[in-house]
Amino acid sequence: MRNTLNFNAGPAALPLEVLLEAQQNLLDFDGSGMSIMELSHRSDVYERIHQGAKVYLQKLLRIPQEFEILLLQGGASLQFSMVPMNLLSTDKTAYYILSGVWSEKAWKEAKKWGKTGILASSKDTNYNFIPNDFSMPEVDSASYIHLTSNNTIYGTEWRNYPSSSSIPLVADMSSDLLSKNIDINQFDLIYAGAQKNLGTAGVTIVIIRKYLLERSSENLPTMLNYQIHAKNNSLYNTPPTFSIYILYLILKWVEKNGGTDRMEQLNKEKAFALYSKIDESNGFYLGHAKENSRSRMNVTFKLLTEELTNKFLQKANDYGFVGLNGHRSVGGCRASIYNAVPLSHVQDLITFMEEFKQRLY
Ligand code: PMP
What we know:
Blueprint: E1 5-6, H1 16-24, H2 44-60, E2 67-72, H3 75-87, E3 93-98, H4 101-111, E4 115-121, E5 142-148, E6 150-151, E7 156-157, E8 169-172, E9 189-193, E10 204-209, H5 226-231, H6 241-256, H7 259-279, E11 285-287, E12 298-303, H8 306-318, E13 321-322, E14 333-336, H9 343-360
Parallel strand pairs: 1-13, 3-4, 3-5, 5-8, 8-9
Antiparallel strand pairs: 2-10, 6-7, 9-10, 11-12, 12-14
Helix pairs in contact: 1-6, 2-6, 3-4, 7-9
Bound molecules: 4'-deoxy-4'-aminopyridoxal-5'-phosphate.
């Protein structure tokens, strides 16, 4: 039972402790005689979870009072549309930095809504680095700048975010929010689907500066309007109560385990160990991302030939490793090592990589 080594990209590994707590409370939550899934979203019991998740987020990410935290549905993909729908006015341009398929998708949705521009792109080299060398657009013409902080598919991650001065900076942090310390003040809007570091699919976190809420036009469809969700404390309609409960448990677990400081330290350790193995393999394992753009969440690599890569993946599968296949758009291998993946699993993978190199192929 549960002897798999889960390196899935998302939905991904969850801490066993969290799963056990959810299991324990599944039939009778907090003495209510009901499962969390059976409680009204207007009940006091549920309200405590809903508020609790927001308070934990605020504390763990050090979110200042100027920001509103929204718990929405539709995944990060719906944010690709909601961001331009709410923020982009007809007289201005939304600028996108293309660092992978997810940022391309975000840009394509924005194009349907208004004027857009591309500030920088690493598409020509199959997105193997963070394109952070560009000049800022003119403040008066720009509605916002959008970037993807961690590129789940290619395994690249921003280290130093652009300083946008007075242009709002929007970030898709789906695959690295809560994995490290960030200064929220550098951003104006952050969004993330929960199914990597924050829990399970179904809830999307949006952290938005309150002043930006004024940009939401009342002509927008109600459910796509940030201002309406903010006014209703993300309870305009029935929220995904179970996903928010799991988010709450994950946040509690992160706090108990040392907060984002400790998560960052552990994630650095895990990533360093894995990249070292790749670098020391004399070209047997080949990393995809350029060194200064390497992600601490998704480690992407391949072997010399496609045949060898497939053999590696097959053997890894036989040994109980799950989710090591690269995304279908790039192939190769990818180890996703989010917060809930223990260092011991990464060490097991490293041992397997060494064994495969020495005697299994
Ligand atoms: N952005 C990033 C960086 C992602 O990794 C993903 C999903 N893997 C998405 C957006 C899309 O998220 P969702 O499936 O929640 O719409």
